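Repro:
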Amino acid sequence: MARATRAVVTDDSHFMRSVISDMLEESGVEVVAEARNGREAVSAVREHEPDVVTMDVEMPEMNGIEAVEEIMATTPTPVLMLSAHTDENADVTFEALEKGAVDFFTKPGGEVSMEMSRLEDQLVEMVQSVAEVDVRVGPGTDATTPQEAYTEAIEAAEASATGPAAGADTGTVAEPAAYVDNPTLLLGSSTGGPTVVERIMAELPPAADLRVLIVQHMPDGFTGRFAERLDSRSDYDVAEATDGARIGGGEALVAAGGKHMEVSNYARGRLRVALTEAPPENSVRPAVDVTMRTAADCITDPMVAVILTGMGTDGADGVRAVARAGGRVIAQNEASSAVYGMPKRAVETGVVDDELALESITDAVLDALTEA
């Protein structure tokens, strides 16, 4: 019989700690300790060595970001952030992901106990999924933390953007002779995805002149902040998608939380999207499948679809459609994925051309879009 997932629940609200602990215990998760602040969480992790920690963002004495950083530095343990649905908390949550947190869950407003009960299955699924992540080794690196891997990736991308010193061997993406005209890149991700998407976007050279569509499973209120972060960390103009938005080369759109992003039109190298509130697919909205399927229906120029880390099956139908349309399909490999769910399902379709470590994905995308 498999051992129950062991969790530390951290929140400065006694009521919220009780609600979360009861939900987890009822679902078979063993809550080994509760913590009122980050300092207590750090101590509880050291004492109990849990499989996962749920971490509030704003707390007295030591906040969630400080606690995540300390945990990753001393006793690396998967952390699920619990964030309020505000712009300020969105910024702090992304910072926590940079420090090594695996994913986040949005705490409801209004009548908290009723809303949490409605979201119980989602919370439990995320806790159990995050608990399976090995945070002791960062994606594609040796004996390093996710925070270090992320920092190294951003520094490498920034060095590439400014250009290497004469004769330097930087290991960055080499500029090919020429790219194909009007290429489109489709990125789909979920758990563990934000920092992975940031890395890929930071590595894309302006010369490729890509049109990029990004679907990251993320609630409304966070996707706008995510787009702003991508915009500031890449050479591409990145924005949250709006209904009817159009992009050309060197531009990117992030699917808005709570809405599907469909490609509604494509002509002369420019694509247009429509946002819909159609029912969720694969239990999510936005869904990667919707964007990739409609892109395959509309786009006639070269196209690459990439399925990145995440739990669930979203993206499998989408990559089938892209492959049928003649596009190239890439999946992140298991070793570099925080959660090998979405990439695994994509590989199982039989249409994936390359299954690669994170550090090789940008190279593969650019190779697929280089003129022979």
